[in-house]
Specification:
9% helix, 8-stranded antiparallel barrel, globular, disordered N terminus
C-alpha cells in the first residue's frame, strides 16, 4: 500500500516547475535571429534569457532574484553581471505583450521592445 501511495504522489506532483514566459531568445531586429547560435560572439546578435541567466553581446548576467505580480504582467530580475572586464549589479524590468513581444525597461525613458526569435 505504501508503494502505491508513493507512486501516486510521484505522478500527482509536477516533474518540473513552469518555465517563465520570458525565457527565450529575444531580438530588437528579426534579422538578428539568424545569429542565435552565436550569442556573445557575434555583433549583432539577439539576447538569450534563461531561468538562471541573461546573455548578450560581451556581457552575461546571473539572475539572482525574480519578483513579479500574480497576474504575470511584469517581472523584476535582479542581476549579477560581468562584461568587458567589469562586474556590476543590474535590474531588469520585463513586461510581456502577448507571447512573442517583450518590453524591457532600463529605468528611464521608454521601454525597449524585443521580439521572440522563432516565435
Amino acid at each position: 500500500m505504501k508503494r502505491y501511495i508513493l507512486a501516486m504522489m510521484t505522478f500527482a506532483t509536477p516533474a518540473m516547475a513552469e518555465v517563465p514566459p520570458w525565457v527565450g531568445i529575444w531580438t530588437a531586429d528579426p534579422q538578428w535571429c539568424q545569429y542565435a547560435d552565436m550569442i556573445g560572439g557575434h555583433d549583432p546578435a539577439p539576447i538569450r534569457i534563461t531561468e538562471t541567466e541573461v546573455t548578450g553581446l560581451e556581457n552575461s548576467c546571473a539572475i539572482t532574484d525574480v519578483r513579479g505580480n500574480d497576474q504575470k504582467q511584469y517581472w523584476e530580475l535582479t542581476l549579477s553581471c560581468s562584461g568587458e572586464g567589469e562586474q556590476y549589479q543590474d535590474t531588469a524590468l520585463l513586461m510581456l505583450d502577448g507571447e512573442d513581444t517583450l518590453w524591457r525597461w532600463f529605468g528611464g525613458g521608454e521601454p525597449f521592445k524585443f521580439m521572440r526569435c522563432g516565435g
